[in-house]
Structures are given as C-alpha cells and as structure tokens.
Amino acid sequence: MNREEKLTQELLIVIDKNNASALYSISSSVKGFNTYLMSEKTLTIQRGKIKHKGHEFEYSAKLGKVKKKDQKFFYLVLTAPYSDLEKFRKMLRELKRVIK
After folding, report:
1. What global pTM score does this model have?
2. Is 81 a domain residue?
3. How many domains does the chain have?
C-alpha cells in the first residue's frame, strides 16, 4: 500500500498581554484559543482535526509561556496530504487572517 506524502506546517503564535490583552485573557488554554479561532465560521476544530469549507486536516496545538515576559505562545502543527495542497493553503490563509 502506498502512503501519500504529507505536508506539515508549523506555526508559532506569540500573544503579548500588553498588546493584545483581550486575546491573552481568552487564550488561557488550548480550548479557549481554539474557540477564538472558530470565531471564523469557516473553521471548525475537533478531536485533532481542523475543518475548513468541508475539507479536514490534522491539527494539534500546545500552549506555553515565555519566561520573564507577559507573553504566552501557541505552537500549532497542521498536516495535509500533498493532493490537498491548494485547499490546505486556503485554510492556512484563513487561519492566519484570524490570528492577525
């Protein structure tokens, strides 16, 4: 059986308490951050998957804190088969638009 090659995109999102206090408060957990991302109606996150306009991709998120600063970060890993590259790119664009 041939396994299809996959593409992985890693994102590091740093949230500064002084520059984005509302987002900093909302994002006290991965669940809270995911809820924020899903404020964009085209994105749904459940059980290790992110869905965008009917297309599903692998998704994981980890929360961390930046030492000695009022900052936290989310490390996201998103994976898709190469055959879904264009759909994956569109989802990533939407995700990045929400984060900005």
Report:
1. 0.89
2. yes
3. 1
- What range defines the domain where residue 17 resides? 6-99
Q: Which of 49, 48, 63 is nearest to 13 (CA)?
A: 63
Residue 70 falls within a domain, yes or no? yes
Among 45, 15, 14, CA closest to 31: 45
* pLDDT digit string (tens) for the chain, length 100 residues: 456 799 999 999 999 999 998 889 989 999 999 999 999 999 999 999 999 999 999 999 999 999 999 999 999 999 999 999 999 999 999 999 998 8
Instruction: Show the DSSP H helices in the chain as ranges.
Output: 21-26, 30-37, 85-99
Determine, yes or no, domain membership for 1.
no
